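User: quick one
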Amino acid sequence: MDAVIKKESESVETNDMQGTRTTFAPNVDIINSDNAITLIADMPGVSENSVTVTLENRVLDITGNVEHYGFEGYKESYSEYEVGAYSRSFSISDEIDKDAIDAVVKNGVLRLTLRKTKPVSKKIEVKAA
Amino acid sequence: MFRYDFDPDFHSNFFLSNVGALQREINKLFASMAGHRASKEYPLVNVWTSEDGIKLIAELPGINPEKFSVEVRDDTLMLSGEHEPESLNEGEVLHRRERREGKFSRTFNLPFKVEQKDVTATYKNGVLTVTLPIRTADKPQKIEIKAA
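Assistant: Done. Structure below.
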């Protein structure tokens, strides 16, 4: 699938004063290591104040609002892409330290660092009978 | 490629502005179809038009402005730059890669010659806005008709 085309989010469309707008699923890169997960999401148009990140029951939710824009004296005469909010959910299989989540938004890119907590599971030795 | 029409009365006419909204939706429909056919064009743009020129808007998340160029010559605009790939540290594995990386370039033929010294480009929240004013000498002149 080509990354140029914005994918529609699975969540329902949002209704606002301007009418129905499409919600998009941001394209993401996910980097995994032993002690952290880094998630990078392209969300052009969002600022640090318009992104919400929640983690509950191992489901990570990312949403971002994009304000409608316009220019006084100008009208839109040609359009190749649609502007809308962003929403996407991820299931996280690792135990994450909820107090140590870093979220930074720069140039329309959200960068999330999720630190894994020490594994709770204990290795069980199998003894020969 | 661009539909470009002057319509100074546009905003004062309610009926016309509704037609305009419909036209925009139709454009988007065609654009999304075009996107599936020829998705090599990047970045995708939206164009806003006034009597003075156009504003070209493009979504370009995460670009380093130093690795980005906007070149204008007469009636040609070229956008080029690079989405730098994520560098991985030791022990890190790329689990999913959907974001675009690498160089891109797109050239637009504008329906008018640009006043080069007045071109502005701003980059905010990953969105590029290029304002391209029409060269003054090329603007339509209103000619007064005198009674004979």
